[in-house]
Specification:
- The structure is a single chain.
- By secondary structure, the protein is mainly alpha-helical.
- The protein has two domains: 85 residues, RNA polymerase sigma factor, region 2, helix turn helix motif (Rna Polymerase Sigma Factor, Chain: A, Orthogonal Bundle), CATH 1.10.1740; 89 residues, Winged helix-like DNA-binding domain superfamily/Winged helix DNA-binding domain (Arc Repressor Mutant, subunit A, Orthogonal Bundle), CATH 1.10.10.10.
- It is built from ten helices and no strands.
- The protein starts with a helix and ends with a helix.
- The C terminus is likely disordered.
Length: 194
């Protein structure tokens, strides 16, 4: 069965197709929620809430291909996780579960991040403000562009660029490692033009 067939069957209200879709995408949605929430139980709750929203929203969804569906699903999961993050003060632990959720893109920032141990980075991220931590997580762990982050958080792109710059500066201080010198120069230069 193709992806289009599965979505069409879900939109027609077939319970078996809905169950198949939920099973196929639950792990993806969970990883997205975990990168934002950093706590397994909260990520599980956000995953379930996201999947309910997806199932309810399928009737109005006009898909083009599997990539656009995944992007739509990604946006719902991120929005749900961000909403939960804003409603609750979450614990500062459970980053170790994220070690199995790799960044979805390969670029110089990722290379620099890999030079540091995951634990060091996560501890440093915990020391950032929520606004700074969130843009870093969305950029480097979820692979969103600054424009996508700005749209998602309802912020001007320049604010996102500024938060990324300030977060990298603070992370450099916290990690006391020259690896961060080259991180994100391309992004920072791009946002000076905005």
């Amino acid at each position: 069965m193709t992806h289009d067939d599965l979505i069409a069957r879900c939109q027609a209200g077939e319970p078996a197709a809905v169950a198949e879709m939920v099973t196929a995408y639950a792990s993806f949605v969970y990883r997205v929620c975990l990168t934002v929430l950093r706590h397994a139980e909260d990520a599980e709750d956000a995953m379930q809430e996201s999947l309910v929203k997806v199932v309810r929203g399928l009737g109005g969804y006009h898909h083009k291909d599997e990539g656009s569906f995944r992007a739509w699903l990604h946006r719902i999961a991120l929005n749900t996780a961000i909403s939960r993050l804003r409603r609750h003060q979450l614990p500062q632990v459970e980053w170790e579960a994220m070690e199995t959720a790799p960044a979805p893109h390969a670029d110089p920032e990722d290379h620099a991040l890999q030079r540091l141990t995951q634990e060091e980075v996560m501890r440093a991220l915990d020391q950032l403000s929520e606004g700074h931590r969130l843009v870093v997580v969305l950029r480097y762990y979820n692979g969103l562009s600054c424009e996508e982050i700005a749209d998602l958080l309802n912020l001007p792109p320049g604010t996102v660029g500024s938060r990324l710059f300030n977060a990298r500066t603070r992370l450099r201080e916290l990690l006391a490692d020259q690896t961060w010198e080259d991180v994100g120069r391309q992004d920072v230069g791009r946002y000076r033009q905005l």
